[in-house]
Design a protein that fits this description.
177 residues, alpha+beta, 50s Ribosomal Protein L5, Chain: A, 4 helices, globular
């Protein structure tokens, strides 16, 4: 009698969020164009990122807006992630994964994303994409009421598990480098 091995549903990984960041490095017209571009690409209103400290060499003051970012969750995150992965050819370097299951990679030009056209008024921007993976039940440690401790074996997502998740769900090829 062959027994089928069941997988614990609480051990399955899921996509928590996709964070998209465009760092401009200065306030002004380019920052407004990056804001407009990110809003068009994602359909979500971006937030401004501000400088943590003054860097005189770059002309950046503490508290000045220097970039825009968007956090996507749920279906929007999956749809945008599929588009962005198509822009990089469904290939991610192994060095893009950290030991907690997060993945980060960059896109040199937003025009590489399928369905995006070049607009001379906006110009060309690069962007950083960060993917966060979690297990179900992770909210227990973050919620406001009745917080509880989550064991380390459930809390951490290994690099190998994250790679396998992206291979299975998004047809990603992991490249050494």
């Amino acid at each position: 009698m062959a027994e089928t091995q069941t997988v614990n549903p609480m051990r399955k990984l899921r996509l928590e969020k996709v964070t998209v960041n465009i760092g401009v490095g200065e306030a002004g017209e380019r920052l407004q164009k990056a804001y407009q571009l990110l809003q068009e690409l994602t359909g979500v209103k971006p937030v401004y990122t501000i400088a943590k400290r003054t860097i005189r060499e770059f002309g950046v003051r503490k508290g000045a807006p220097i970039g825009v970012k968007v956090t996507l969750r749920g279906k929007k995150a999956e749809e945008f992630l599929n588009k962005v992965l198509a822009a990089v050819g469904h290939r991610i370097k192994a060095s893009s994964f950290d030991e907690y299951g997060n993945v980060s990679f960059g896109i040199a030009e937003h025009v590489l994303i399928p369905g995006t056209r070049y607009d001379p008024e906006i110009g060309i921007f690069g962007m950083d994409v960060a993917i966060t993976l979690v297990r179900p039940g992770f909210r227990v440690a973050r919620r406001r009421r009745k917080k509880a401790h989550i064991p380390k074996r459930h809390r951490t997502v290994s690099k190998e598990e994250a790679m396998e998740f992206l291979k299975q769900n998004f047809n990603v090829t992991i490249v050494e480098g």
